[in-house]
Amino acid sequence: QNGALNRSAAEQRARELVGQFVDRELAAAPARLTVRQLAGEYLDWLERVRGAKPSTLSDHRLLLAEPGEGRAGRIVAAIGDRPAAEVAPEDVEAILRSIEVAGGSPRTVNKVRALVHAMFEYGVKRSGLPANPVRGTDRRREGQREALETYSVAEVEQLAEALAAGAHRSEERRVGKECRSRW
User: Fold this and answer.
1) Which residues are paired to 34 by β-bridges?
2) Rounded (5°) CA angle 93-97-100
3) What is the pTM of this model?
4) Which range among 103-107, 165-169, 171-175 shows the weakest confidence by mean pLDDT?
């Protein structure tokens, strides 16, 4: 009648409208999230929830720093203002190439790639990003590490004897130690 709703129908219609609004807002949220915002959220989560070591946090903060903050800022300078949902593998690959061109080793490039991958993985799981663009990039081949120099048992025993005799100290320090040990 006249388009009027009874109380029950009005409440039902209100729930539908609110649900539609919430769905639209949730769908739009990843589209509005910038890489800069994602980086901040990721670093906060890494510290608060994961309890990352201070050295890890310091390293990640350096790599995700604002442009002009020391030697870092390459990632945020390149894609910081872009919506995170719109970043493509080509964008990430361009950052990795720029690190190579600047003289970064394959290990350094892979380290940056791993950080950006973790940040976008966080975005997929926690912020509703549709995909992780780093999955479409390739790791760099790292050369073989040099073999560690090892010592034989006899060499270790010789070294221990030399240390016990104080051969690693200067003559002055050995004499000074002998004098102190007499007192």
Assistant:
1) 83
2) 145
3) 0.63
4) 171-175
Map tokens 């870092």 to a residue. Answer: 72
β-strand partners of 83:
34
pLDDT at 70: 57
CB 41 within 8 A of CB 127: yes
C-alpha span between 183 and 162 (Å, rounded): 24
What are the two backbone dihedrals, phi and then psi, of residue 157, each rounded to the nearest 5 degrees?
-65, -40
Query: Most distant CA pair in the chain: distance in Å?
Result: 111
Cβ–Cβ < 8 Å for 81, 36: yes
What backbone torsions phi and psi does residue 83 show, to the nearest 5 degrees?
-60, 130
Which residues are CB-neighbours of 66 under 8 A, at least 6 positions away?
73, 76, 80
Q: What are the pLDDT digits (tens) for 133-172? A: 999 999 999 887 788 888 899 999 999 999 998 888 876 6
Nearest to 38 by CA among 69, 84, 100: 84
Which three-class secondary structure string do you get for 2-58? CCCCCHHHHHHHHHHHHHHHHHHHHHHHHHHCEHHHHHHHHHHHHHHCCCCCHHHHH
